[in-house]
Amino acid sequence: EPMGAYLSSSAAATAAASSAESGNPLNSGIPRTHRRVLIAIDESLGAQKAFDFWSGVARSQDDSILLVNAVEVPNVPTGLLLSPTGSFDYSEYQKQTQPLLERAQRLKANMMAKCEQRKLRCKFITEVGSPATAVLDAAKTFSASVIVVGCCGHKNHLLGSVSNYILQHSCRPVVIVPRFD
């Protein structure tokens, strides 16, 4: 390469990666960069399309993928207001939350099987709370490079409420995958 030649940052990164891979001792200690990708996941078609989209992205096998599922459990104060006696009944609360947690476990098993089949490095976490805030909190906690979310809005709306909230409040890049063809 001639002295003073200009190399763009992407060309420099490519050159560094190829020389590191070829065994150049000057670059052997440089770690290969990878993305930390957070995918908001639930049982919806939009979330499944978001997962399918990202797992088809070039080099997604190099990514660390965090699948975040948010479970909205009944609120205790709301349950007290709706209770005829006005007292907290733990067994009733557990009866309402147990099916939600079981669905989350089935979703985890299904998604981890897909990750294994596609040779993706995935971790699945279930957060309790509203989906939008759970996704944003997890993105911050796990230092996500990008957030991928499906759009479950109706055809006459551009975005769904969760994807819109994430887009408006995220400090990270957000990829919104529409569910419509």
Automatic annotation (TrEMBL):
Residue runs in coiled coils: none
CDD domains: USP_At3g01520-like (cd23659)
Domain UspA: 35-178
InterPro entries with a match to the protein in the record: Rossmann-like_a/b/a_fold, Universal_stress_UspA, UspA
Signal sequence segment: none
UniProt protein name: UspA domain-containing protein
Natural source organism: Macrostomum lignano
